[in-house]
Structure formats: structure tokens, C-alpha cells
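User: Teach me something about this protein's shape.
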Amino acid sequence: MRKFIALFMLAGILFVPAFANAQDAPAAAAATEATPAAEETAASPTVVDDEIVAEEQSFHQLIKEKFIEGDPLYMTPVLLCLIIGLAIALERIITLNMATTNTKKLLLKVEEALASGGVEAAKEITRDTKGPVASIFTQGLMRYAEGIDMVEKSIVSYGSVEMGRLEKGLIWVSLFIALAPMLGFFGTVVGMIFAFDTIEAAGDISPSIVAGGIKIALLTTVAGLIAAMILQLFYNYLVSKIDSLVNDMEDASISFVDILVKHKLTGK
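Assistant: First, the predicted structure itself:
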């Protein structure tokens, strides 16, 4: 996602000089027709274009300059929100992917273990398998001697515990999604106040003073919005992943109870 944003911003940066050069082309052509001396200066824009391209190729340097222009005092909290939020999101992605289990294969193994070795053999299968689904099966098997009703209650109760573990950390990601734009707006408001103070002290509404102050102030807002958009994408992915795991847990739990009922009826 960061590479996509980088390419998008770089494309915009490259487009602006190209548009400016297109506007300057008629003036350059008229100067060439007016005087022969202009032919020597006609080659100079190529050098300038090469220098511009060389500067624009360093995207990291551009980001660094914008970070400093936006005032590190207000840009740093936004950057911290992005870094910490991404760290939590990546940790959750790894954890959720590791928690994914092939429920059909697990149910088949449990059914075969129950048929061949009974409940204890099924417990060994579920204990050796990682993931929330296997943990729920283990809790259900531990209550098997108390009846199917207790098994169902145990599965429901422990399923809520596993769901809470899956959702762990999401509250912090959502916090940083809301906090990053707020910090950006805060830096913008403070920057605007300083800009108007500068105008008041100068006693003149100079375009350079107004434009420069507003530009610096708005950089914090842009940073906050970019951080929030990146984290929002990760947050939505995590929510969809958790929903998928929860659905698998519910479906597998129903099938697991059916297997236990069948095993109890057969008396094996």
C-alpha cells in the first residue's frame, strides 16, 4: 500500500513539471524565431529537466523535506500513530493466518479417532492441532462425559473466549485511525494561528506569507489523512479475516456436536 501511495504521489510530482513545460513551450518557440542568440539558450531547459527528474527520483528525500516543512513537532505524533498502528496490524495478520485451520480435515481426523480410539484419542488430535477451532473441540471433548448439553455449553462459552482473542488489538488500530487525522487537524489549526500571527506582526497580507504559512499548516492534515487511510485498509482486512474465522468456528462446532451425538448413539 505504501508503494502504491508513493507511485501515486510521484506521478503527480512528475505531471506538474511536464504541464509547466508545456505552457512554456510557445514562449520558447517565439524567442527562437525572434533572435538567433536564443538557440544557445534553447538547450538549457534540457539540463533543467534532467535536474528536476534527478531530484524527483529521490522520493524518500521528498518525504523527508515535507516532514520537516510540516514541523516535526506536529508530524512526529502522526508518524508514530502510523508506525504503531501498522505494527499492531501486521502482528494481528500473522496471528490470524496462523490461527487458520482446515476444519474439514480436522473433523475427519476427530471422527476417525473417536471411532478407533475413543474420546482420549480425539483429545490427542485436537491438542496437537493449533488454532481456535481445535481448542474449542478440546474443551468440548473434556465435557463429553457430562453429556451433550454440557458439551454445547462449553463450546459456546469457550467460543466467546476465542473470539475475544481473535479481536485482540483491533481497538488500538481503530484508535490510531481516529487519532491520526485529529492530530493532523490539530497541527493545521496551530499552524494557521502562527501564520496569522506572522501576518499581524508584518502588518501586511503578503501572498508569500499567507501561502507559505497555509502550506506548512496543511501538510500535517495530509499526513494524518494518509496515515488513517493506510490503517483503515489494514483494519478492514482484519475484520473480514476475523469474520471468516468465526464463521468457520461456528460451522465446525455444529459438525463437531453432530459427530459426538453420532458417537454416543453408536456407543463406541
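Now, about its shape. Confidence is low (pLDDT under 50) at residues 1-48. Residues 72-268 form one domain. If you'd like, I can walk through any region in more detail.
User: That's plenty for now, thanks!
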